Amino acid sequence: MPPPRTREGRDRRDHHWAPSEEEALEKWDWNCPETRRLLEDAFFREEDYIHQGSEECQKFWTFFERLQRFQNLKTSRKEEKDAGQPKHSIPALADLPRAYDPRYRINLSVLGPDTRGSQGLGRHLPAERVSEFRRALLHYLDFGQKQAFGRLAKLQRERAALPIAQYGNRILQTLKEHQVVVVAGDTGCGKSTQVPQYLLTAGFSHVACTQPRRIACISLAKRVGFESLSQYGSQVGYQIRFESTRSAATKIVFLTVGLLLRQIQREPSLPQYEVLIVDEVHERHLHNDFLLGVLRRLLPKRPDLKVILMSATINISLFSSYFSNAPVVQVPGRLFPITVVYQPQEAEPTTSKSEKLDPRPFLRVLESIDHKYPPEERGDLLVFLSGMAEISTVLEAVQTYASHTQRWVVLPLHSALSVADQDKVFDVAPPGVRKCILSTNIAETSVTIDGIRFVVDSGKVKEMSYDPQAKLQRLQEFWISQASAEQRKGRAGRTGPGVCFRLYAESDYDAFAPYPVPEIRRVALDSLVLQMKSMSVGDPRTFPFIEPPPPASLETAILYLRDQGALDSSEALTPIGSLLAQLPVDVVIGKMLILGSMFSLVEPVLTIAAALSVQSPFTRSAQSSPECAAARRPLESDQGDPFTLFNVFNAWVQVKSERSRNSRKWCRRRGIEEHRLYEMANLRRQFKELLEDHGLMTGAQATQVADSYSRLQQHRERRALHQLKRQHEEGAGRRRKVLRLQEEQDGGSSEEDQAGPDPPGAGDGVDIQDVKFKLRHDLAQLQAAASSAQDLSREQLALLKLVLGRGLYPQLAVPDAFNSSRKDSDQIFHTQAKQGAVLHPTCVFAGSPEVLHAQEPEASSCDGSRDDKDKMSSKHQLLSFVSLLETNKPYLVNCVRIPALQSLLLFSRSLDTNGDCSRLVADGWLELQLADSESAVRLLAASLRLRARWEGALDRQLAHQAQRRLEEEEQDVPVSPKEVATLSKELLQFTASKIPYSLRRLTGLEAQNLYVGPQTIPATPHLPGLFGSSTLSPHPTKGGYAVTDFLTYNCLTSDTDLYSDCLRTFWTCPHCGLHAPLTPLERIAHENTCPQAPQDGPPGAEEAAPETLQKTSVLQRPYHCEACGRDFLFTPTEVLRHRKQHV
């Protein structure tokens, strides 16, 4: 039973009684949580060096406990020693203490709560204990400072030992005397990290250093910031796509080449920089070569601009002569010897169809290292492989070996990994364990990993090439060049003697090409030419490239951009081309964004365009996992891959918005790489900002103003997120993580969170990508857009497919005629230039190709002259695809299905007809046979009107926004919402029309004999006013008559008499009731000049035409009733019904 409360006790509590100094000292407990909380409140506030609850705070308490134990032990020993010695009186000097204390050497001071004006924080803390705590805090800061100085001294010794250290002054002196300097250094000489610091020391304050890869920008900025004692994000920063640590105080910025080119596009003279360092120029990337040409033209206009080209010792004379014999400072590499061991592989007979890489040679290298070198000797292994598939194969085998020996930590490294996964290669392995890093050629130059002692060189690399004739990208495996082999070997000798195992013969090495093929000579140049046009650098054919691309590639790119509407006939940028040049995506995806901005589909188009611009988020391992497939099935769309990606992103946003759910677990269960979804979100935001800047976003996307409570809550959340981000960056910059022995296939570092949601402020447990995502995006807006996207109507979906189809055109594939009898994996498709393409394994149609088969066959052919495979149907479909990629097979990547007839009529660049328009050929390779010529003529006429209105509305919108942006006098009338709504309605009615037709791909022989030629066409009377202002003229090569720039009438050869197509037949006008014998061409002319027909004009004026088209049946025929003397368009059933009225 507790003692009764006395009056004195009650009074003490009621008046907030505080214990006396003596009582507080007696009851003081340093380990009491409340005591520590009070001390943290007083000393670890927001403005202090150590923040309450941070990792640094935890480190301090660990230090404090050790300091207490040490002081207690020291005090007890001192008392024992003083007990046996007589006391001596030492005279005290003025202002000097009698006894020495180590704290007198500490050149720091700590303000307590009493000296900072803090009210109430130190009220319950005894002054003696506060003083003791302050001394302990001073010792901790001094200890940390000594550690930092120790690391700094070691760092300076390492910097001084680099080969380039002896050439620093020479580089600066040469740069002072010349505008361009070439610094050539072997691997490990230190040029990438030291040259920017030499410039900083020399007084340069506006330095840009370009890197070909984003990971190199990040790692170099961290390293240079650490070595130069600059907290990264201040004097030294990086700037990459969607992420930047650059600030007003930044003096050195590492950025990608593409980003620098975008800056030149905005400010051609680059006034913000004093020195440009172009690193890794020897790699000959596409944008690097273009940047060199731009700089060569810029330097005479900017004599104060200095340029440093940094390269490996590869073909140095090429770069020097390109810049008027620029001086070269050649720096030797590390002098550590590297032993080269050639281990050629014996050719073994292939036992299966699979050409999978044999991992046994790599395992033998690991075994030899384990047998020859004791585990106490440090040294990691770097394995160069050609691609991700090869990395996966070797990873699986080496993981098994590593789990058995417990002496290896296996890590993959390639550009498809997230930044967090890529950073794991820089962590250290546990004692007695080595790292085995399986990498693509990204580790040749862009990434430098300390501690590499062994290198395995497979001798292979996968490179992307472009075939302009087949219009496909080829990812092929090649032997590397001698220069690349030397680069790989050099990675083994950076920190000590190393060994390079080459899995090929020395004779193979001698047969290698000296240098790799420049990227500009093997890739598509569409985006480059578009960027050159936007930057006004002149004709791409005469641009001073360091090594010019093939002329055929340039001509193909210019023709492609002209076909896409980005260039006009004089090769100048069109309004849509100017906007496409500012979008950091392929032309076809940029067109989607612009086309989607016209309709009320901006939000879904933004998401789809972003999803198609990044690598596939679906993991390779998930393809063989039934659990992942089952979990992902509800997200799949039978409309195509873009809609599946659209569903995935929207579902992920919904998970993100629910605080109780873990998005990483959600992605892992479905075999989705979450960092790809983060990239989509970042790219989506960038697209949205670009469309807003150009006035192409409607007001519907304006955000609603939140109430004061919501704004306050949002402010608090963002403040907490900023604190988490800062704590993570501070912690990550001060320690090296220790890898754990991988127990799973996707192992990681010991600090990595394994399960459950991340608690707020959990130090390293925090998902930093999630924090950055929430800081960069308005989650409420994304959730609202995702929610509305899930409710897309059938009409919106059809219109969205139409926008995607036009954006992707002419990237079309037609199903093979015999696909219905093939199994899923054997489905074949044909493009205009490539036959026998197949669906990519990740394609949603690969598992359900039946949705692509034409249904409802209505007749075998239109005249009995075709095989049964040319079946009539109104549901023929084509595949629009984003890219055609050839590895071991040509694959269609990211496909969407679209209606064949309507899409070809709306999008074709070339459309040819016979006399009655029942036979159409689109772009010279797809033939359409329509069952009814009457319906064919009407559908063709409707498509011409819709094309003209759509194109006109788009041009007016872009021109109007361009005038507003330039603050010019507005001459073009903006497109009204009513006009857009009417156009949308008519497009939907057009695509919903059902007319039986057959679809097939023409053979090469048929395509050669397709046209009648100009001399065989019979005379046709002049028909003024055809299709509005169009005039009819004979086509000079095809024959027939050119109706528009894409439509040629009556130019196709036929098995029947040419004159039969032009014979007149009785026809009744649906508008004025005219009944007369007319040819198909005369019918079209009458419909366009009929006074009672709807005319082109203001929005809504043509609503009746598509409705009439929709109501007109394909079975209707002209019918003259003898009983009532009237003419009708009736189906056979309607004829019988009408006759019955006269009985």
UniProtKB/TrEMBL annotation:
CDD domains membership: DEXHc_DHX34, SF2_C_RHA
GO BP: negative regulation of nuclear-transcribed mRNA catabolic process, nonsense-mediated decay; nuclear-transcribed mRNA catabolic process; positive regulation of phosphorylation
Enzyme class: hydrolase
Domain of life: Eukaryota
Molecular functions per Gene Ontology: ATP binding; ATP hydrolysis activity; protein-containing complex binding; RNA binding; RNA helicase activity
PROSITE patterns per record: HELICASE_ATP_BIND_1, HELICASE_CTER
InterPro entries linked to this entry: DEAD-box_helicase_OB_fold (IPR011709), DEAD/DEAH_box_helicase_dom (IPR011545), DHX34_Znf-C2H2 (IPR056382), HA2_WH (IPR048333), Helicase-assoc_dom (IPR007502), Helicase_ATP-bd (IPR014001), Helicase_C-like (IPR001650), P-loop_NTPase (IPR027417)
This protein's name: Probable ATP-dependent RNA helicase DHX34
Reaction(s) the record says it catalyses: ATP + H2O = ADP + phosphate + H(+)
Family: Belongs to the DEAD box helicase family. DEAH subfamily.
One Pfam match: DEAD
Positions of the UniProt region annotated as Disordered: 743-767
Sequence ranges assigned to domain Helicase C-terminal in this UniProt record: 368-536
EC code(s) of this entry: 3.6.4.13
Keyword Nucleotide-binding: yes
Record's compositionally biased regions (Acidic residues): 744-755
Record-annotated Helicase ATP-binding domain positions: 172-332
The keyword Transferase belongs to this UniProt entry's keyword annotation: no
Residue ranges of coiled coil: none
Subunit structure: Forms a complex with RUVBL1 and RUVBL2. Part of a complex composed of SMG1, DHX34 and UPF1; within the complex DHX34 acts as a scaffolding protein to facilitate SMG1 phosphorylation of UPF1. Interacts with UPF1, MOV10, EIF4A3, XRN2, SMG6, SMG7, SMG9, UPF3A, UPF3B, CASC3/MLN51, XRN1, DIS3 and DCP1A; the interactions are RNA-independent. Interacts with NCBP1/CPB80; the interaction is RNA-dependent. Interacts (via C-terminus) with SMG1; the interaction is RNA-independent.
The entry's keywords: ATP-binding, Helicase, Hydrolase, Nucleotide-binding, Phosphoprotein, RNA-binding
Gene3D superfamilies in the record: 1.20.120.1080, P-loop containing nucleotide triphosphate hydrolases (3.40.50.300)
